[in-house]
């Protein structure tokens, strides 16, 4: 391991998510080269959540540090965190925020959203959490990220056909998807059943989780064959 190039070690560690970087890597790796790189990432990584809300026909974007009220503009994040910046959660939020760190995008600025998130997106550990607010914000997020950014965990409601297409694409294309939670904002169509079966079988039941919330839904869990019965987390 001592002969492995530094750049290779750095590229490998760059792929690890927050939870793995801390434990077991930072606490258990003793090789000098690997340990130095792990410590560098461990102490310099900056993890931020992205909150998106619809306000007066625009979309408000807020970057907030994980576990802290600290906020920053995208320019500040790039200057301070640089290559150690990671976006680990994208979700919709509630109401207008008058903080001077807030960014506003127009309805047709979805490409700008992708360009901001992509370079620092934590592929191996990011979550999409779309709650029960205005359908416009939910739809805008899914349309903007569709076929461009892939997640480790999904919490999504049914919002027109984009929700179904988004879910199918994530199951088909995301190499890191491990959890799906279907929310009850509308009944999910039965056409998603083959995709959910595929999701549960891809790497085995023990590493995959699926659940539903609410009463207005198709009862996916009962309709899945017994052999594919998902375990509840």
Automatic annotation (TrEMBL):
Superkingdom, taxonomy of origin: Eukaryota
This chain's protein is named: Uncharacterized protein
Question: What is the organism field in this record?
Answer: Steinernema hermaphroditum
The organism that produces this protein has a lineage beginning with: Eukaryota, Metazoa, Ecdysozoa, Nematoda, Chromadorea
């Amino acid at each position: 391991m001592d002969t492995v190039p530094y750049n290779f070690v750095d590229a490998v560690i760059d792929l690890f998510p927050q939870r793995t970087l801390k434990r077991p890597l930072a606490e258990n790796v003793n090789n000098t080269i690997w340990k130095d790189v792990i410590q560098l990432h461990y102490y310099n990584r900056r993890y931020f959540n992205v909150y998106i809300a619809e306000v007066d026909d625009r979309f408000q974007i807020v970057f907030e540090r994980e576990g802290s009220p600290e906020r920053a503009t995208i320019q500040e994040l790039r200057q301070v965190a640089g290559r150690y910046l990671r976006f680990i959660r994208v979700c919709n939020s509630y109401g207008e925020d008058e903080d001077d760190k807030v960014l506003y995008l127009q309805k047709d600025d979805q490409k700008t959203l992708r360009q901001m998130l992509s370079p620092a997106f934590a592929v191996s550990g990011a979550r999409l959490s779309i709650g029960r607010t205005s359908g416009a914000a939910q739809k805008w997020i899914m349309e903007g990220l569709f076929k461009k950014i892939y997640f480790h965990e999904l919490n999504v409601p049914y919002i027109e056909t984009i929700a179904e297409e988004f879910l199918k694409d994530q199951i088909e294309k995301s190499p890191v998807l491990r959890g799906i939670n279907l929310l009850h904002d509308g009944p999910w169509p039965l056409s998603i059943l083959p995709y959910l079966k595929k999701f549960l079988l891809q790497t085995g039941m023990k590493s995959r989780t699926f659940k539903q919330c609410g009463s207005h839904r198709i009862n996916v869990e009962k309709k899945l064959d017994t052999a594919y019965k998902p375990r509840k987390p």
